[in-house]
Prior knowledge:
The structure holds two protein chains of two kinds.
Chain A: E1 2-4, H1 11-21, E2 25-27, H2 34-43, H3 50-64, E3 69-74, H4 81-94, E4 100-105, H5 110-123, H6 129-156, H7 165-177, H8 182-198, E5 209-215, H9 217-221, H10 229-235, E6 238-242, H11 246-254, H12 264-271, H13 283-295, E7 300-306, H14 310-326, E8 330-335, H15 341-364
Helix pairs in contact in A: 1-6, 2-3, 3-4, 6-8, 6-11, 7-8, 12-13, 13-14
Chain B: E1 2-5, H1 11-24, E2 28-31, H2 37-46, H3 53-65, E3 71-73, E4 76-79, H4 88-91, H5 93-100, E5 106-108, E6 111-113, H6 121-129, H7 136-158, E7 177-182, H8 185-188, H9 197-203, E8 206-209, H10 216-223, H11 233-248, E9 253-259, H12 263-278, E10 283-288, H13 294-314
Parallel strand pairs in B: 1-2, 1-3, 3-5, 4-6, 7-8, 7-9, 9-10
Helix pairs in contact in B: 1-7, 2-3, 6-7, 10-11, 11-12
Amino acid sequence: MKITFPHMGNTYITIKAILEELDIDVVCPPKCSKKTMELGTKYSPEFVCMPFKLNIGNYIEGIEKGADTIFMLTGCGPCRFGIFSSLQKEIMLDLGYKIDFITSDRFSNIEGLKEFYNLLNKASGKKGVFKILNTLKKGLKLLDEVDELNDLMNKVRPREIKKGEVDHLAIEFENEIITVQGFKASFALIDEYNQKLKSIEIDKDKDVIKIGIVGEIYTLIENYLNLNVEKKLGNMGVESHRSTTTSKFVRDTLDFIPLIRSDKKQVYKAASPYLATPVGGHGIHTIGNTLLYKEQGYDGIIHILPFTCMPEIVARSILPTIEREKDIPILTLVIDEMTGEGGYETRIEAFVDLLNKRREVKDYGKAISWN
Amino acid sequence: MKIGIPRALLFYEYSPLWIAFFSNLGAEVVLSEQTNKRVLHQGTQTTVDDACIPVKLYHGHVLNLKDKVDYIFVPRIMGVSKGDFICPKFCGIPEMIKNSLTDIPKMINTTIDFTKTDKHFNDTIIEIGKYITKDENKILSSYDSALSEFNLYKDKLKQGQLPTDTNNINIFESNNRKIMLMGHPYNIYDNFINMNVIKKLRDDQYDVITPEMIDDNITSEYALQYDGKIFWNFARKLIGSCLYEVEKKQIDGMIYICSFGCGIDSIVSEIVERRIRKANIPFMLITIDEHSGEAGFNTRLEAFTDMIKWRHNLENNLSTHG
């Protein structure tokens, strides 16, 4: 059995390490690329959201690399994610691929966790409770560290003296992490790059613009899909922070377990004046995090969603009110397979210019760099 | 007191229940006009641009009730039975309305959420009724009698009558060819937005079957055959009806009407299409949005119905020269 899985940002690092630790053969699909998108778009329903299409592309590319089993999460809720796996399975089988499809309910309750455990136990040749729980615990830690490394990059990039150093390290890291196996090597590599990032020469006193990125989780963390928005912002001298990460998402779903903490309550509370109940996906997180970013003094918000994303459309109709009432600029970017990079970049640049002017008006009473 | 009900979204599913309930309580029920160009235009102008057409129409219908009523009934529907979910836009519709429209009457935004338990069913009913009267017994008895009226209405649907029909017809006794019209109730029964597809098919001597004519229990049972958990109420109904028809083979063709950008239809129409094609039943997917070019629609419909006729008359002996 050779397992492949769909990509979602940096999550592959953790999934790969967990499966390797349990001695399960794993085939990591190539990073999302234009080819992935073309394959996915060709075989997926027309109006389905981008994550679905990229998943299909990943499966096909994973199978080309020798996988015979696909692992995918499933679930249940207003967002269509829960029904992804069953339709994807039908599509893959109709295409003539002879594959197994293993799914696991996303672990929002005890039964879901048990099912996931049984799955891993079977696939790993009965490794036992202790080994598996320990692996998952370490996996969670790895998830955190990968996200922290990304946060650090976003902090350093706008302040670096020699432009391009962080980008260079980021590419190097990606090339190396795919070659190492298991937790020990992964942790060591992350540590190494943490040190390297910290030793980059930076302008400590630089007064940078801060932008919070909110929106649908997959689009937010899959850099191919969001056209490297963090990198773009960083190179424009903007510090960005993404509100939703895989580690936060996992914590959100697991927080019924006493020892695992999440900021779900805080986010829901912040959102409550504008949106009273969760509307599936990350709709309520978009609203809550926008308000939290405002409180933390961020200069602007970028809202990213894939075209036809249902929860985010609800959020999108609320955001203009927040923008008006809380005086925080919000840029909404809708992404699908037709998104062109040029127009996208122009909008982000214009938005950053606007934020710079706002900063000047705030500091000096007028915009001084107006031309 | 005047209660306004927008003639959109779940109106086409539950209107007899809601109208009877509010009338029994002594309120005057005001419905928005039938969908027309003005409603569509106002809705399109005010709603966030990537919303689907039914949600835009809902905004238009709410605006249509402006200045006419004391309260507008805009419930927040999270799910109507255990383990069920619904499109996120239904969960957030009160907020969408509040943030997109200004100067509208007060709204009745009661949350209808039976996804985990229906223990608070009566509380939900009372919460809605409290806007009109304080008498809890009256509210519950009004609901009960409205419900029995609604059940009679549902029985009529099962005999082949459409919610939009006024006279009694029983299509299961006629010998006409039958076309199944699939889609959300607010797409297949709103005759403005679907360009009168039902009338056009009937004029062409076809009987129209819709998912509402099949009992909920039957569709839920058939939906279980589908591999994978179907958690949306609408999806279960549609996939269940599809699998039922695949087995019964009583239809000559299927037309699926979906709205542009509909999240649920994007999945369900694909599942249905794959199943129907495997069963060798003619299938056509029509996507509707705010554009109202009727000619193209008619052409596709005519081609589809002609094809069904040829299929029966000529089997596969079609000339390649047309």
